[in-house]
Amino acid sequence: MDPGASELQLAGRTRADQADACRRFLELSHARILALHRSGAPGDETARAYAAAADEVVRALFRAARAGLGRPLEVALVAVGGYGRAELCPYSDLDLWFVLPGREDRRAQELAEAVLYPLWDLRMEVGHAVRTVSGALALARDDLTACTALLDLRFLDGERAPFESLAHEAAQKFQRDPGAFVRRLVAEKSERHARFGDTVFLLEPNLKNGEGGYRDLVTGLWAAKARFRVRDFPDLVTAGQASERQVNALVLARRFFLQVRTAAHLHAGRKADRLTFETQEAIAPALAADDASTDRDPAIKPAVAPAVEALMQRYFLHAKAVARETERLLERCLVEPRRRPSIKRVDDSFALSDGKLVAHDPELFHHRPSEMVRIFNVALATAAELHGDTRDLIAETVAHPHGRARLGEDPQAGAELLRLLVDSRDARSPSLLELAHDLGLLSAVMPEFQPCTARVQHDLYHVFTVDQHQLYAVARLKALERGELAAELPLASQAMSEVRRRAPLYLGTLLHDVGKPLGKGHSESGAKLANAIAHRLGLAGDDVAQTEFLVRKHLLLSHLSQRRDLSDVAMVANLAHELHDEETLRELYLLTLADLSMVAPGNLTAWKEQLLRELYARTLAHFRRGPDLAGSDEGVLVKKRRARVAELAGEKPEALEGWLSSVPDRYLTTTAPQQIARHLALSRRRKGPVAVEVINRPRRSVTELTVCADDAPGLLARIAGVLLASRVDVLAASITSRALGGGRAEALDVFTTRDRYGRPITDPKRWQRVEEDLERVLAGRATVEQVIEERRERSSLPERVVPAVRTEIEVDNEVSADFSVLDVFTQDRLGVLYTITRTLAELRLDIQLSKVATEAARVADVFYLRESGGGKLTPERVEEVKRALGEALAQLNS
After folding, report:
1. 820-827 vs 729-741, strand pairing mode
2. What is this structure's pTM?
């Protein structure tokens, strides 16, 4: 409030007049505070301003109500919770207690109602209670919310005696057994994380209740107040319970959280603590535009995505700091006075204090900086944890510019970090490598790693921050090396046991995305950074080159396996030529597997793993047998598949020879025998233009649709159009053409689908309509456009806001000897597949092979194309195709 702001005078006025006066006062106050917020004021400043405005209204109503009671009532008006701490955001609750010194008095409830009703008329959220001092203390024994409220008491008005009595008794209560209270806080924190997110790294985090969020910060403050009798975080420094760095981290995080909460609440017009993509995009330009990188992608809304990434990086940095420092604060609050700890010597530098690693000399890390890294290798060797005080000492040393510089200049630090990196015994969660990074060691030894820290990518595909993703990928390699994934990933586990040069593999995996903060072309820029880091860590020349190569090519195998025809012998030969030898193939395969596994939970699907495994096996065979014999295993597999299909169909193999010979070998090697047998039955029972089969896959939350029909140019477009008409979202598609003779062919197209809300489609009537529409369209009785118009639905439900995906269209004329390969990346929305395939049909292009996939909100569709008369696309046609597709996708849902 401004010093000259006039105090509200409400006594003797009607309830309506009181409400009008309060409303005008709040409107003026909120306008002033809004201007303060928009000017970039710290969050704690605006929070105090909101609390001060609320104080004026609440006090005025309380005094007016008290004046109307007649005879005096000894009562204190007390603010509790966030309001008690004067950390109030727009639309947050006002929590009020009316505190009586002794017995309950019915007039206190009347007084409370006289205050509350006008506040409710003003549409303010108010929590309240009428408490006696003894009643408040009794309730706190079993109710944690009431207990924590005793730590946030702030006197507003009335008689001070009840307030001071309650505050004194509460302080005595906490001093009697602070440990029990802190243990209740720890239990509540764990339960809350289970409900709101038990990791800092969530795409749409809960700012208040998630791990590392505002509530965790307050939990640490409550524990400190109860255990050390402090008023706020800075008092911990005076009490000798925290360093200035630790306190500063908590204070800055609180300031940031309150600023973001204020912005989020104002945007939503209500309490809104979940940072949805919509909220992030709405508030980021004002809060983080100055922090946004300058390499903006013109295809994404100007300034929004960079600002969002900058805002969320700041959020994750603060959340990590809060998670780390509040955990240490809670640990210190739980330490009980005891005798001297049990000390056991480990070596000249370290000892075990009650089983946890400590340094003999607190000055050790100043004199020998590399010992800050070596202690993690000692922790592996002894299976011990680092003592909390030791972790604090390392963090303090690294945070100081002098200490950080000395660590970076110590060559032994690099050697020790490399030892930790390649040691597969590090099976802890979080790993010791993660803990070293959290304390700042990785960035000190490898400054190029620092920009990756807490860096997010504003999309649905990359769940983890760049640094965390790379650390998780390393952990995945170590699990492979320990043999923990032998049953799940036998080929990868075998490959890991055959790796000869582990240092380049592990370092390449740790650094494969180190170029991400530099923008486009991160593989190339990351390779250059990796080269410098590998030299600094002391790798030999060949290992440096191998690390650089792995980083430069870390996307190659996933690209080829998911987007190219694996039966193309020339493609495999080119890959083998590029990789030079088996060892490089093996290391790149393992890096790719770890990378795909840790992009997001569940990202490495059985389908992706199978494709990657197949590409690895084919290329390995090429190295070992040469191009002429590399496909011999495939011939054996085809024979086995044919025999197995005949067995499943209950017929002799020779009876199925004609049908099985009509499908390409690629289909037989990449399709499960059970599925081939179902396709065989579907093909045989088709009598008219089309036959369909629908299978629900509840474990994957999808429905699989197989369409069997006469193959013809534009068939895929017509099927996609019918699916669009019925609001069927296509996640993946695999198309196969079976030769019938006489220039005729039969299509066996498999679509993985869901509804527009991400659920499997289980209604038989809906699929019956799809089949009927397909039959009409393929028989020529209706056009796709007519079916779309008939099935058109109008929905009033707003679409969920998700991060934008840039449309990219690429044509590769080199990878295949016979076809031009089209790659289309774009935002997922209903009708994408139909739009692409219709455009290709209108351009008179034949689709020989297609790999259609949707991951998160990103479509990645691949088409092997040729002209209707045969032959690849000319450069002029390539430009025509790219232009036509770009225009069609731009108009979709516009």
Report:
1. unpaired
2. 0.85
Both tokens of 622, joined, read: 């090429």
Q: End-to-end alpha-carbon separation of the chain, Å?
A: 47
Element (H, E) at 737: strand 729-741
In 3-state terms, what secondary structure has residue 820?
strand
Which residues of 661-728 form beta strands (DSSP E)?
690-697, 702-710
- Cβ atoms of 385 and 357 within 8 Å: the answer is yes
Strands 845-855, 729-741: pairing is antiparallel
User: For 300, how many CA atoms within 13 A lie in the half-sphere containing its CB?
Assistant: 21
Mean pLDDT of 834-845: 91
**Residue whose pair of structure tokens reads 């906490």 in the numeric block:** 174
Q: Among residues 159, 166, 160, 168, which one has the least CA distance to residue 74? A: 159
Beta strands 76-80 and 154-158, pairing class: antiparallel
In this structure, which amino acid lies at residue 540?
A: A
User: Would you say 159 and 76 are in contact if contact means Cβ atoms under 8 Å apart?
Assistant: yes
On whether the CB atoms of residues 157 and 59 are closer than 8 A, the answer is: yes
Q: What is the DSSP letter of 102?
A: S
Q: State the pairing for strand pair 76-80/94-100.
A: antiparallel
Question: What is the three-state SS of 517-571?
Answer: HHCCCHHHHHHHHHHHHHHHHCCCHHHHHHHHHHHHCCCHHHHHHHHCCCCCHHH
Structure tokens at 302: 């100007």
Phi, psi of 400 (to 5 degrees): -80, 130
In whole angstroms, give the CA distance from residue 226 to residue 223.
Answer: 5
Residue the block writes with tokens 């509840």 = 698
Structure tokens belonging to residue 592: 């790719």
The span from the CA of 83 to the CA of 152, in Å, is 8
Residue 417 in tokens: 């970090």
Say how far apart CA 187 and CA 206 lie, in whole Å: 19
Per-residue pLDDT, averaged over 616-626, amounts to: 89
Query: Rounded CA gap, 655 and 293, in Å?
Result: 65
Give me 74's structure tokens: 């000894």
Interatomic CA distance for residues 114 and 574, integer angstroms = 82
DSSP-based three-state secondary structure for 166: helix
- Helix/strand/coil percentages in the chain, nearest 5: 55, 15, 30
| pLDDT score at 632 | 58
Secondary structure letter of residue 345 according to DSSP: E
Question: In 10 A of CB 742, how many CB atoms?
Answer: 6
- Three-state DSSP state, 616: helix
Residue 205 near residue 315 (C-beta atoms within 8 A): yes
How does residue 546 score in pLDDT terms, banded at 50, 70 and 90?
A: very high
Distance in angstroms (rounded) separating the CA atoms of residues 91 and 126: 10
770-795 b/e with 16+ CB inside 10 Å = b? bbebbbbbbeeebebeebbeeeeeee
**pLDDT at res. 799:** 61
Neighbours of 424 (CB within 10 A): 19
pLDDT tens for each residue of 63-90: 988 887 877 889 999 999 999 999 999 9
Whether 46 has a pLDDT exceeding 60, the answer reads yes
CA separation, residue 604 to residues 246, 585, 591, 624, 853 (Å):
38, 19, 13, 28, 13
| Backbone φ, ψ for residue 160 (5° rounding) | -75, -25
Rg (CA), the chain: 33
Structure-block tokens of residue 324: 């780390």
C-alpha span between 847 and 862 (Å, rounded):
10
Q: Starting from the edge strand earliest in sequence, which strands make up the sheet with 343-345, in order? A: 343-345, 350-353, 356-359, 385-386
The answer to whether 66 touches 111, Cβ cutoff 8 Å, is yes
90 closest CA partner among 307, 267, 224: 267
Calpha distance 524→539 (Å, rounded): 20
The whole-angstrom separation of Cα 218 and Cα 666 is 59
pLDDT at 337: 66
Q: How confident is the model at residue 2 (pLDDT cuts 50, 70, 90)?
A: very low
